[in-house]
Amino acid sequence: MTPIIGLGVSGLVELSEEGYAVKSPWPPGSEDSLSDMRFEAKVYNHLSSHPRLIKVIDWDAEECCLTMENMSNGTLKDYLEKNNACISEPQRRRWILQAVEGLAYLHTKGVIHYDFKPKNILLDENLEAKIADFGCSAFNGSKPTGGAGVRYTPPKGSNISSGVQLDIFALGSTIYAILTGKDPFAGVDSEEFGDRFWRCDYPDILEDVEMDTIVRNCWKGAYPSVEEVKGDIDGLSQRMASITVL
User: Where does the Protein kinase domain lie (predicted)?
Assistant: First the structure.
């Protein structure tokens, strides 16, 4: 039997004998999963190659299977849960920059991820982060087939509704998770999450006031684009680098 290295709502990922990750429809034969796989292949083909996206090796249209590079360190979510205590601050900041770079590239290509979270960011042997799983994504202006779930999606009734800003909200939650090792509002039920959101009672990143502000602005819908987020993070990184040199 081939080892199973991932299982999602509509796809099963196995490790091939050649060392590649092979994603096939799950449950097998399901029309929904087949449709999701075909759409995901279409998105990958549209995006082309980018260092912050997982690399696709082959698409078998007959079997509806995607062959991709294997990311040996698994998902960012699992890595944070297992190793949070020993992850350095520079490593966390690299992941944040890589996540922002990848999401910014998607948006320049007209793709909204709609399921952006640490579970859908994978790490290679060098701990380089790459975005994966486009089964819920959509081309800008079209309707998504899914979403990122509580903590990575604003509560109902929020003024954050465009695809771009939904991805930016999820980016804010992802940055929070990278810095703290846990989901925002961890241990809080959906109702309390909504109540706290409306009161702007956000969890703090106490050690990093400037990054805390960036995350809060993502949650508030204050950024019109991921490029704006990237600009603030790049500026913060440059200021920190100059302080380190001094």
Answer: 1-246
**Cis bond leading into 27, ω under 30°?**
yes
Q: What is the pLDDT of residues 142-186, one digit of tens each?
A: 766 556 566 899 988 888 889 999 999 999 999 999 999 999 988
Instruction: Report pLDDT digits (tens) over 62-78.
Output: 999 999 999 999 999 99
List, for residues 6-49, the tens digit of each pLDDT value.
887 779 999 999 999 999 999 888 998 999 999 999 999 999 99
User: CA 114, 96, 41, 73: dihedral to nearest 10 degrees?
Assistant: -120
Whole-angstrom distance, CA of residue 57 vs CA of residue 74: 18
Which neighbouring-strand residues pair with 138? Answer: 112
Find where tokens 């990848």 sit. Answer: 102
For the beta carbon of residue 223, count every other beta carbon within 10 angstroms.
21
Structural domain 76-245, CATH architecture: Orthogonal Bundle (1.10)
Domain boundary assignment for the chain: 4-68, 76-245
Interhelix angle 226-245/89-108, nearest 10 degrees: 150
**Beta strand pairing status for 56-60 and 21-25?**
unpaired
At the topology level of CATH, where does 4-68 sit? Phosphorylase Kinase; domain 1 (3.30.200)
Beta strand residue intervals within the chain, DSSP E: 4-7, 11-15, 21-25, 56-60, 65-68, 111-112, 121-123, 129-131, 138-139
